[in-house]
């Protein structure tokens, strides 16, 4: 299950609809990646995808995705990767220690989330699933904001309009339609066609690709030429089910059926994820319509803290993906290129310590929500039924006062 | 539906269908953020022609012929509403609203609550509902119970041209999601509408109304059953019984104060709807009335409803649907105590 080093200048994997570079429905590499071998998934061989940074940290060029990163950008991306992983590991620990009811880990998917998240421009709108903690980080959402959802205090405590990042969606794939509708609104507002144009990006997984809502979203996006990017993190598993339980063809190739381009990117390569997402977003904002991106990655942890992945995958498979870790390769590259030295890496670690410490303190100190919240915001306007129930409940609660019971 | 010859003004005799059409037209004129979307609502004007002529006058970006996908229609409407639009979705028939059920009940209904008021979704979902049109299966359903049961949704249904004209405009102006149930078997019933009257002067959206005063028993209905109620009251009057009729108009929130006030005078209540009996709207109304009017009731609340079967083949629907005789039978029963 060894890692095959990436070669330079791989052929493009775009499946442009009706465009010059059409590809066969699948390639031997695709088939190998999909079927795996010896019951292992996504580890036998790397599929064809856009890659700018090999697992060994070697910078490679791609003919369609040439991006010049400044040293500051590269340092920033590394810092993001490290911080969101540390926040994630801390969150898992907080769950294990009883401070969160559940946690959905992003470990292994940092590059896909940071690359695409940093590719967004301020005016773009992101629609996450429930695992996009890294995307929220890029949108300037406080890293403590999602934790109320996972503690049971609220359903996520950030203002979607302020950060251009919607609330998490737990019904698989439902948010893809919201993103497409939002993008249709961008079109009707005339906010496409210039550098200031707007775009939406929607996150979903390989499991979601089976959902009817995702199909309908792709249909609407294609028909209305909506400025939306479908960003599928294929992390190889929907809880326990491997991706071959979801599809017989590589996910990105489905785009051709909807009439827009699809592209597969190395989801553990933050530079490639950035480049591919930035290109797709810019196409959208300039009125060129939707793109489907399949970020080929791996969920290193459990589906959530309630899951036991040892029941459905092997240690050697997990080990093979560790060799493609997004942070390790970035650190190797920065070191070799002289962009990051020991002081830099230490300062990033210190930042991560500080931010993670604040998260820990915040979560442990989160007070239980007041019971009055039960009845708030059911409706924007008149709400007589809830008003009556609230009045009854308050009277009922107050009947216990003095008995020390609640 | 007749083609419009210039703008209509003054008091007109209109069908419910035409009143809805003119109400939608007014809403499109009044607010550029209002969009209509659905299957066949554009060039065709909808299978019932409720949106007739609107795409021609307002364009394809205001009146959208959508792909044939109900979850897609509602899901994209949510996104459009997040962007500041006021989408009015048409579900072509009641039975076809179910493919959109997750988007309606999990997504649309809960967003305001989940976001703690940060996101409002002013989406209207128009659903032609109810039976009696001799159609094939899935075209005659009464889905109101599902939507009434879902916190976060408002549910209304007009039974006259006047209400159709104003209530659709009020629903579109509401900042809450509104399920707007249109009694499709009554689309061609006519009534007078003063098109010059202001929206502000109309009956508020979430109010029930006594539509005929009476003294002996209270009969409550809404939407498609209101004609049955009127016919029943006429027939009962010949028997010397005076029925008070109440049109609920709003199913969520329910406005039962007029019902309580009436039952406290009459002591007898009959609730009529086409939706199946079990756990239906009448069950909720009966429970609340027995709680509020316990010492006034002279007889158990009677329910006249569809049966607890799937909607039958159309040759059987006359037996399924509440009709004059079943209402009068229920009235007789309330007087047997």
Description:
The complex is a heterodimer of chains A (406) and B (337). Chain A has helices spanning 28-35, 71-96, 110-119, 133-138, 147-151, 160-163, 174-188, 212-224, 255-258, 270-285, 315-322, 326-336, 342-365, 384-398; strands at 125-127, 200-205, 228-234, 237-238, 241-242, 262-266, 291-296. In chain A, helix 2 runs antiparallel to helix 12 and helix 7 runs parallel beside helix 8 (212-224). Chain A starts with 27 loop residues before the first helix and ends in an 8-residue tail after the last helix. Mean pLDDT of chain A is 90; it is low at 1-39. Chain A has 406 residues and is an alpha/beta fold. By secondary structure, chain B is of the alpha/beta class. Chain B folds into two domains: 11-201, Rossmann fold, CATH 3.40.50; 209-334, Rossmann fold (3-Layer(aba) Sandwich). In chain B, the strands form three sheets. Chain B has a seven-stranded mixed beta sheet with strand order 3-2-4-5-7-6-12, sandwiched between helices. In chain B, helix 1 packs parallel to helix 7 (161-173), helix 3 (70-82) runs parallel beside helix 4 and helix 8 crosses helix 12. The longest helix of chain B has 15 residues, at 16-30. The radius of gyration of chain B is 20 Å and the shape is globular. The chains are: A alpha/beta (406), B alpha/beta (337). The A-B interface holds A 154-157, 159-161, 166-167, 169, 171, 174, 176-186, 188-189, 200, 212-213, 216-217, 219-220, 223, 373, 376-386 and B 35, 61, 66-67, 69, 71-72, 74-85, 87, 102-103, 106-107, 111-120, 151-152, 154, 174-176, 206, 252-255. Chain B: It holds the Pfam family Transket_pyr. Chain B: Its cofactor is thiamine diphosphate. Chain B: Keywords: Oxidoreductase, Pyruvate, Thiamine pyrophosphate. Chain B: It comes from Actinocatenispora comari.
């Amino acid at each position: 299950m060894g890692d095959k080093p990436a070669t330079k200048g791989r052929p493009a994997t775009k499946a442009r609809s009706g465009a010059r570079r059409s590809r066969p429905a699948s390639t031997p590499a695709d088939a190998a990646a999909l079927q795996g071998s010896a019951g292992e998934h996504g580890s036998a061989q790397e599929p064809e995808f856009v890659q700018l940074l090999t697992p060994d940290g070697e910078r490679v060029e791609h003919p369609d995705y040439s991006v010049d990163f400044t040293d500051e950008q590269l340092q920033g991306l590394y810092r993001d990767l490290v911080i969101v992983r540390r926040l994630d590991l801390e969150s898992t620990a907080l769950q294990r220690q009883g401070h969160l009811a559940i946690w959905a880990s992003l470990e292994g998917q940092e590059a896909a989330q940071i690359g695409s998240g940093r590719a967004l421009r301020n005016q773009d709108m992101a629609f996450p699933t429930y695992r996009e903690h890294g995307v929220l980080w890029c949108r300037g959402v406080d890293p403590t904001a999602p934790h109320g959802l996972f503690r049971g205090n609220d359903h996520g405590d950030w203002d979607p309009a302020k950060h251009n990042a919607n609330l998490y969606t737990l019904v698989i794939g439902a948010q893809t339609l919201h993103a497409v509708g939002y993008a249709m609104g961008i079109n009707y507002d005339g906010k496409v066609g210039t550098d200031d144009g707007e775009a939406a990006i929607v996150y979903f997984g390989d499991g979601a690709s089976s959902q009817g809502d995702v199909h309908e979203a792709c249909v609407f996006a294609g028909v209305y030429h909506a400025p939306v990017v479908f960003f599928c993190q294929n992390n190889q598993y929907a809880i326990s089910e491997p991706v071959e339980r979801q599809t017989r063809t590589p996910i990105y190739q489905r785009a051709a059926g909807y009439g827009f381009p699809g592209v597969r990117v190395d989801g553990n390569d933050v530079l490639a994820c950035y480049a591919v997402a930035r290109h797709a977003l810019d196409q959208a904002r300039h009125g060129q319509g939707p793109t489907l991106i399949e970020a080929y990655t791996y969920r290193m942890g459990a589906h959530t803290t309630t899951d036991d992945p040892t029941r459905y995958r092997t240690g050697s498979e997990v080990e093979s993906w560790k060799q493609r870790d997004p942070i390790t390769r970035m650190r190797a590259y920065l070191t070799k290129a002289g962009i990051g030295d020991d002081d830099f890496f230490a300062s990033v670690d210190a930042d991560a310590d500080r931010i993670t410490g604040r998260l820990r303190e915040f979560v442990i100190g989160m007070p239980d929500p007041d019971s009055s919240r039960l009845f708030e915001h059911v409706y924007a306007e008149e709400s007589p039924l809830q008003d009556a129930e609230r009045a009854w409940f308050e009277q009922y609660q107050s009947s216990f006062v003095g008995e020390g019971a609640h | 539906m007749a083609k419009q010859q210039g703008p209509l003004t003054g008091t007109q005799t209109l069908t419910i269908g035409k009143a809805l059409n003119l109400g939608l037209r007014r809403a499109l004129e009044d607010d550029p953020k209002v969009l209509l979307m659905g299957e066949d609502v554009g060039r065709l004007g909808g299978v019932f022609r409720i949106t007739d002529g609107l795409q021609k006058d307002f364009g394809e970006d205001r009146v959208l012929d959508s792909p044939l996908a109900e979850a897609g229609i509602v899901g994209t409407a949510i996104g459009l509403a997040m962007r500041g639009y006021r989408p009015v979705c048409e579900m072509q028939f009641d039975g076809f609203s179910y493919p959109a059920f997750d988007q309606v009940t999990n997504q649309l209904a809960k967003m305001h609550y989940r976001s703690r008021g940060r996101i409002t979704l002013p989406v209207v979902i128009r659903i032609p509902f109810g039976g009696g049109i001799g159609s094939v299966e899935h075209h005659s359903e009464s889905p109101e119970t599902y939507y009434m049961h879902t916190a976060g949704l408002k549910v209304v249904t007009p039974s006259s041209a006047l209400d159709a004209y104003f209530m659709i405009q009020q629903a579109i102006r509401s900042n809450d999601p509104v399920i707007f149930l249109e009694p499709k078997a009554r689309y061609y019933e006519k009534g007078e509408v003063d098109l010059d009257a202001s929206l502000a002067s109309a009956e508020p959206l979430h109010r029930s109304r006594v539509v005929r005063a009476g003294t002996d028993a209270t009969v409550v209905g809404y939407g498609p059953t209101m004609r049955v109620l009127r016919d029943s009251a006429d027939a009962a009057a010949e028997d010397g019984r005076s029925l008070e009729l109440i049109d609920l108009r709003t199913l969520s929130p329910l406005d039962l104060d007029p019902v309580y006030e009436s039952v406290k005078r009459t002591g007898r209540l009959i609730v009529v709807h086409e939706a199946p009996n079990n756990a239906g709207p009448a069950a909720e109304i009966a429970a609340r009335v027995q709680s509020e009017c316990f010492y006034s009731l002279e007889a158990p609340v009677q329910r006249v409803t569809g049966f607890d079967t799937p909607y039958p083949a159309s040759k059987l629907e006359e037996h399924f649907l509440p009709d004059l005789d079943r209402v009068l039978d229920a009235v007789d029963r309330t007087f047997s105590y």
